[in-house]
Design brief:
With 62 residues, the chain is α+β, with helices and mostly antiparallel strands. Helix content is 39%, strand content 16%. It is built from two helices and two strands; from the N terminus they run βαβα.
Amino acid sequence: MSFVLDYKDKVVLVTGVSSGIGLGVAKEFARAGAHVAGCSRKSPDDASVQAFREVVEQEGVR
């Protein structure tokens, strides 16, 4: 069974976006068209947080 998530132009908040499940969830919401607001305990300058930004921006959303 397969289904499609359509979150085009919706805004979602995902916690723990620097790795693991949080990063995976953020990526899937971005693929579904959502603008993703993410939070992490790590510094905004941390490489893993930058990776989150890149993943979201690659899908054409912010």
